[in-house]
Amino acid sequence: MEVVIVPDATAGGSLIADALAALVRRKPDALLGVATGSTPLPIYEALAAQVASGAVDASRVRVCQLDEYVGLPAGHPESYRSVVLREVVEPLGIDKGSFLGPDGSADDIPAACTAYDEALRAAGGVDLQILGIGTDGHIGFNEPCSSLASRTRIKTLTRQTREDNARFFDSLDEVPHHVITQGIGTILEARHLVLLATGAGKAHAVAQAVEGPVAAVVPASALQLHPHATVVVDEAAASELKLADYFRATYAAKPEWQGL
Fold first, then answer.
1. Looking at 18, 103, 117, 143, which residue is catalytic?
2. Top-level CATH class of 2-253?
3. Which residues are responsible for catalysis (predicted)?
């Protein structure tokens, strides 16, 4: 996979936003897979600035969710649908009708999972999927030991993941115990995967995912199997990479026109 080391989160967000803008110029109705949480916010902010300046028109872009909590009431401010609408769809001027996501309040959750996988295929597949990485190496909500061939499904969150996400709620008790997540097999079907990781807390997970063996215990290591996967990390998140100097030199020598 391609590894790009940047000075900080702002630089990483700008770099990925430039890649998204280039994609949208090539394909105005591109299907963009988005992640939530604090890590990807610099991406969305940088892309929104380009939209506001007129540098790119994102009005025809389609957006799809990576995951969704199960059981939160419709319109809950921390449902991932609400977060994506607030942080991505509205700032980019995207039509809400083009937004695809799993139904976390459905009576039949397994059927809702299957329906979402089918909807992604019917939409032509994801052109670029943004990913984050958990401190335990998870992507989406595919916790350690998830099948590398898994499809969209319901998952039980580990206590560590619930604690990591508790900052978005008033207390740990309010964090749902279950989510719908795209499976690793579903994620790998996107044409381009871009993972952003920042901070020293992600350094060990990044090193395992990039330089370790492909193993279900580190779900993000599955990106090694993808033909076009890009990992963008700041210096802190790159601190445990044995090949950090090689990655810096390789990207520095890359033709400017090639992009991510």
1. 143
2. alpha beta
3. 67 (proton acceptor), 136 (for ring-opening step), 138 (proton acceptor), 143 (for ring-opening step)
